[in-house]
Automatic annotation (TrEMBL):
Keywords: Membrane, Transmembrane, Transmembrane helix. This is LysM peptidoglycan-binding domain-containing protein. It comes from the Bacteria. The keyword Repressor does not apply. SUPFAM superfamilies: LysM domain (SSF54106). Residues 41-93 form the LysM domain. The chain crosses the membrane at residues 12-34. The keyword Transmembrane helix applies. Gene3D superfamilies: LysM domain. It comes from Sporolactobacillus mangiferae.
């Protein structure tokens, strides 16, 4: 009977430990992403801009990214699922803040 109680207590301990580790991982990851985005330039999309035109204008300032890699980085970091952007939209681009 006591081994059943010990196994149950051990199982609960593992669940609690897993929950604590998940919470710590979440906060660490979210702080890293926020800190990362704060170290990059933010731009406001103008009428007529496209991801390609933004890449052409800023890609030379980025850390050795091709235009395609620049565009993929912008899409990933800004949560874009398509290439569609709109005027006045704020975008984080892979150019270090000065």
């Amino acid at each position: 009977m006591q081994t059943h109680t010990n196994k149950k207590a051990r199982g609960i301990s593992y669940i609690v430990l897993l929950c604590i580790m998940t919470i710590i991982f979440f906060f660490t990851l979210s702080n890293t992403v926020l800190a990362d985005q704060n170290s990059y330039e933010k731009i406001k999309v103008k009428a007529g801009d496209s991801l390609w035109s933004i890449a052409e204008a800023h890609q030379k300032e980025s850390a050795n990214l091709s235009k395609h890699a620049f565009i993929e980085w912008v899409k990933n970091e800004n949560g874009l699922t398509r290439d569609h952007i709109i005027p006045n939209q704020q975008l984080v681009i892979p150019v270090k803040r000065k």
